[in-house]
TrEMBL record:
Transmembrane parts of this sequence: none
Gene3D superfamilies cross-referenced by the UniProt entry: Bifunctional nuclease domain
Any Pfam family matching the protein: BFN_dom
Region (Disordered): 135-155
Feature: compositional bias, Basic and acidic residues: 137-152
Ranges of residues in domain BFN: 1-132
Lineage: Bacteria, Bacillati, Chloroflexota, Ktedonobacteria, Ktedonobacterales
MF (Gene Ontology): nuclease activity
Domain of life per record: Bacteria
The name this protein goes by in its record: BFN domain-containing protein
Length: 178
């Protein structure tokens, strides 16, 4: 398994579709997952450090897990079947290991709230991950820069379509703000 962090949450302004971009903690590998508006909002709000006057659904679930004496250990994006990602919440319930099926977007929203590690199975990254082309340190850019090069996880061809797609998205830095 590969540990990941949330790099950003973005929106395609033309289609209003949202994505969360996960980045491997120890390498330049990324996983792009399409998510719904409510989950994009829930993740972005937490990443921005803002709070809601009343608990959002993911805050509620985090509180329920805690009040029942459980602790989130991690989340795992475990599979990719027919272009649908699968995830599991990994909980410690008083010393008992419990795994609960989850949509990745909900699992990520819970992980950012509980400061829980996010893992992706290597097989998922092999099929759907992208990696930045190796360049010298001065010329390295984030996925949102125009001159970024992205290639598939096997390192075959440049995937200009991924670069163009990411560049077409706007970061949700101001998501939910008036």
């Amino acid at each position: 398994m590969v540990e990941m962090t949330v790099e950003s949450v973005r929106i395609n302004l033309a289609t209003q579709q949202h994505v969360v971009i996960l980045k491997a903690t120890k390498q330049d590998r990324y996983l792009i997952i399409w998510i719904a508006h409510p989950e994009a909002y829930a993740i972005a709000v937490e990443l921005q450090g803002t709070t809601s006057p009343r608990p959002l659904t993911h805050d509620l679930l985090k509180n329920v897990i805690s009040e029942l004496g459980s602790k989130m250990v991690s989340i795992v994006i475990s599979d990719l079947i027919d272009d649908i990602y699968y995830a599991r919440l990994v909980l410690d319930m008083g010393g008992r290991h419990v795994e609960i099926d989850s949509r990745p977007s909900d699992a990520i929203a819970l992980a950012v709230r509980s400061k829980t590690p996010i893992y992706v199975e290597e097989s998922v990254l092999e099929r759907a991950g992208v990696a930045l082309e190796q360049q010298n340190e001065e010329s390295r850019r984030s996925l949102s820069k125009n001159d970024s090069k992205i290639e598939d996880a096997e390192g075959a061809d440049n995937l200009d379509a991924y670069r163009d797609f990411i560049n077409s998205l706007d970061a949700l830095d101001e998501f939910g703000k008036d």
